[in-house]
Amino acid sequence: MRLLKMKKYLLAAVALAALIVSCSSPVKEPSAVVSGRMIGNDVETLYLVKATDGLDNSEMVDSVRLDENGCFRFELSQTDSSPRFYKLVYAGGRPVTLLIGDGDRITVDSAGDIFHNYTIEGSDESELIRQFNREYYGGYDRLLSLADMASHASSSEAAALNKQIYRTIVETIQAQVRFVGAHADRLASVYAMRQTLPAPFAEAFAGEGITNAHRNTVVEAVGRSYPTSPYIDVLRADMAAEQAVAELSDKITYQDFPEIELPDIYGTRHKLSQMRGKVILLYFWAAGLGNSNTMNADLRTVYDKYHDRGLEIYQVSADTDSVTWIEAVRGQKLPWVSVCDYQGPYSLPFRVYNVTSLPTVYLIDREGDIVATGSTLAELDRRIAALL
């Protein structure tokens, strides 16, 4: 009997000790927390997305539904010592960009339009991004509004609006440059430098504002503030690409149009200038696009219609997969010059000709002047007929 009681006491003691140990074990705190409240809008679900270290893609981290009071909370179990770019994404608006690192407890509140009215606490870097967005995207949105008004205005009204458009572009670019100069040692400047004006103003003002001198200053300053940040290499890559374009552009032989010399599927190199004296349809495309068959069918219609009268086509591919491109050219039996260097949109011709979407078409007359451009072939048919 005594032995039985001792066993009971022993089991009770062990159980009590286990309970004490389990209760006293520390609960692991999340590495970072993003919480807040969003009211006065129709947002129901928030998504937290993390940018890749190369800033060329993103991945979903988590999603939450706002509660009845508009509150939300994200808990991150693992973050990096050097802050990384994240975005709060929601339907119907621009995302809110955050910089999140180990130990951060960030609060994001907004009322009404989230992007234009949010506030940040708990992250100085994220607050700097908010301040930049307020000024830069204020100008960005004014620019869109003015451009829309100008497109529907009379000639006299459009002239006045165009002056406002130009002034707004200059002010917005200057705001970007000022911010980067004032915060060169902050990761928020990396974000600021990579923002661009809406098309077509971005192309028209390419080379204005942020330069490699600014990027180099930020690389050095951020390198001191955040020596392990992967974004330093991103900026160095941006600088190298910009420098390469500048150097190669200096070597381009200009007719009245920039020269292109790239290989076809057999490795034979073709110069665009070899077609000089003909009407040239310079066509940027990608076989990897789902509608490439339709695009080339339309292109063939134009080619068959005008080739005997002096039309030539020089087709440049943005494909990076040789198999996809070669099979498309062979399978569709394309009768014109089709070339590719597998560098995708980073290929020099795409940069020199400011190709920002596919397909893009340039029409070059017999004298070598670029006389028309557009994204569809139908709108160029009349011009081709007139030139021939």
Strand arrangement within the widest β-sheet reads 13-12-11-14-15
**Total tally of structural domains:** 3
Assign the CATH superfamily of the largest domain: Glutaredoxin
What does the average pLDDT come to?
86
- Beta-strand proportion: 15-25%
Order of helices and strands: HEEEEEEEHEHHHHHHEEEHEHEHEEH
Largest sheet features = 5 strands, mixed
Please tally the helical runs, counting DSSP H or I stretches of 4 or more residues. Answer: 12
| End-to-end separation | 115 Å
Approximate helicity band: 40-55%
CATH architecture of the largest domain: 3-Layer(aba) Sandwich
- What is the CATH class designation of the largest domain? Alpha Beta
Shape by Cα distribution: globular
> Structural class, please?
alpha+beta
Give a written overview of the molecule:
By secondary structure, the protein is α+β, with helices and mostly antiparallel strands. It folds into three domains: 32-122, Immunoglobulin-like (Sandwich), CATH 2.60.40.180; 131-251, no CATH class; 261-387, 3-Layer(aba) Sandwich (Glutaredoxin). Helix content is 43%, strand content 21%. The chain is built from twelve helices and 15 strands. It has helices at 2-24, 114-117, 124-151, 155-182, 188-193, 201-204, 212-225, 231-251, 292-306, 322-331, 348-352, 378-387, and strands spanning 32-39, 45-51, 58-65, 71-76, 84-89, 96-100, 105-111, 119-121, 261-263, 269-271, 279-285, 311-317, 337-339, 360-364, 370-374. It has a five-stranded mixed β-sheet, with helices on one face. Strands 4-1-7-8 form a four-stranded mixed β-sheet. A hairpin with a 6-residue loop joins strand 2 (45-51) and strand 3. Helix 3 packs antiparallel against helix 4 (155-182) and helix 7 (212-225) runs antiparallel to helix 8. The longest helix has 28 residues, at 124-151. It is globular and about 75 Å long. The termini are far apart. Residues 1-25 have low confidence and may be disordered.
